[in-house]
Design a protein that fits this description.
Length: 333
């Protein structure tokens, strides 16, 4: 006799609520199998799309993140095993012997309390008082850009970006936001001008997360840079405001299932960041110093992002500070 969902006690569970230790029925009429590990796989746009379940027996089951699946209440019974037979007690006077039908009736399934679903941490945005730590721009956005570039005449990279932005800054334009974040990075990292870099970055930092990840990437870069600048300057309270703003997407997902999946994906990206090791080593082997510098610049951005998140389970804040210092020396050499 096969023990499929039709013949065993089971219930439906959202894929995002599955936990190691749950018993899930694979497709077909097989027995429920215990989950050992769960891996979240993204689609080509970086959105969680598929859960890859590894069972204790070494099998794998793929489940779309939006699916619901049948899960068992515990270890399914082995259909080939025979239950031990105890000697029947003598019947009391006046009692009747149960019929075969009554004897075969189940006593009711055991109550198994499933593990509580993983709840992602809840983040709240900065208060009005905290936001007041970010000063208003000194003039129009274009004026802020012109003032930043005025102190660095002859620096071609900054001048090209500033000239393009001074014609008109459109915060709805993804390319415009990218130019602003590039300008802020060049001012801080290359030209060692954190004050003007922070003034330019603040033009981005106050923009809300609108669900557009391409536009948000530029704002995210500016927030991570601003956190770094303020931490280095001893302005920890202002740095904390940028770090709260950086986590805006984490606090706006109202669907608990999506929030759990996003939290897992986010934590994995923090624990296993891409620090461009292969690309940097390849550039070193080829003697391509310009390519090495570009890759190190990207590594520096990734490290700043990690530091703005308070580090991760694999890289602590002290180690991040040390690595950031090393990369700053490399890209500025």
């Amino acid at each position: 006799m096969t023990h499929s969902p039709a013949t065993q006690q089971y219930k439906e569970k959202q894929a995002g609520d599955l936990q190691p230790g749950d018993f899930v029925f694979p497709p077909g009429d097989g027995l429920a199998e215990e989950i050992r590990a769960i891996e979240v796989q993204n689609d080509d746009y970086g959105v969680p799309a598929l859960l890859l379940l590894t069972t204790v027996d070494g099998g794998t089951i793929r489940i779309a993140v939006g699916s619901s699946v049948p899960v068992g209440d515990g270890v399914p019974a082995d259909p080939g095993a025979e239950a031990p037979v105890d000697a029947p007690a003598e019947a009391e006077p006046g009692s009747s012997t149960p019929t075969d039908a009554e004897a075969d009736a189940p006593a009711g399934p055991a109550v198994v309390v499933p593990p509580r679903p993983e709840t992602p941490p809840t983040y709240t945005g900065p208060s009005a008082e905290e936001l007041a730590l970010i000063p208003e721009p000194d003039g129009t956005p274009e004026a802020v850009v012109r003032a930043a570039a005025a102190d660095h005449k002859g620096k071609n990279g900054v001048q090209v970006l500033a000239e393009r932005l001074a014609k008109g800054i459109n915060t709805k334009s993804g390319s415009c936001l990218r130019d602003l974040s590039d300008l802020a990075f060049d001012l801080c990292i290359v030209l060692r001008d954190p004050d003007h870099a922070l003034a330019v970055a603040d033009l981005l930092n106050v923009l809300p997360f609108d669900g557009n990840l391409d536009r948000w990437a530029s704002i995210e870069r500016a927030l991570a840079l601003s956190s770094f600048i303020c931490r280095e300057a001893g302005q920890s309270e202002r740095a904390a405001v940028y770090e709260k703003l950086l986590r805006a997407p984490e606090s706006q997902e109202e669907d608990p299932f999506k929030a759990r999946i996003n939290a897992r994906v986010r934590q994995r990206s923090l624990n296993e960041p891409n620090l461009y090791d292969k690309e940097i080593f390849r550039a070193i082997d080829n003697g391509n110093h310009e390519a090495e510098r570009e890759w190190r610049f990207l590594r520096l951005e990734a490290l700043m992002f990690l530091r703005a998140h308070g580090g991760s389970k694999t890289i602590g804040e002290e180690e991040l500070a040390r690595r950031i210092g090393n990369e700053l020396e490399s890209v500025r050499a």
